[in-house]
């Protein structure tokens, strides 16, 4: 019987949390804050993507250099 009360309490807590999230989203939407948030997120995501692309390009260049050095190091001696 205690399990039933536990599950009911968990379900009630989940419902209240969902209602609170929905109310918070509605308040943000009515205040216009969601547009600023999405702009900030989009800008941050674009900046992170640019850093990621730059680091990937640097790694590719380093990998090419290391691959050439290893190829020369293992080449038969002259």
Q: Overall mean pLDDT score?
A: 82
The proportion of residues in beta strands is under 5%
Radius of gyration, taken over Cα atoms and rounded to an integer in Å? 27 Å
Number of domains: 1
Low-pLDDT windows of residues: none
Shape: elongated
Describe the structure concisely.
With 78 residues, the chain is mainly α.
Could you characterize what this model shows?
There is one protein chain. This protein is mainly α. It has one domain (2-73). It has two helices and no strands. It is elongated and about 80 Å long. The model has no long low-confidence stretch (mean pLDDT 82).
Detail the topology: elements first, then pairings.
Blueprint: H1 2-31, H2 33-73
What distinguishing features does this structure have?
single chain, mainly alpha, elongated
């Amino acid at each position: 019987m205690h399990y039933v009360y536990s599950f009911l309490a968990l379900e009630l807590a989940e419902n209240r949390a969902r209602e609170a999230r929905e109310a918070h989203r509605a308040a943000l939407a009515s205040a216009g804050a969601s547009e600023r948030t999405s702009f900030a997120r989009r800008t941050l995501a674009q900046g992170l993507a640019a850093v990621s692309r730059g680091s990937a390009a640097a790694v590719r260049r380093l990998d090419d250099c290391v691959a050439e050095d290893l190829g020369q190091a293992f080449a038969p001696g002259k």
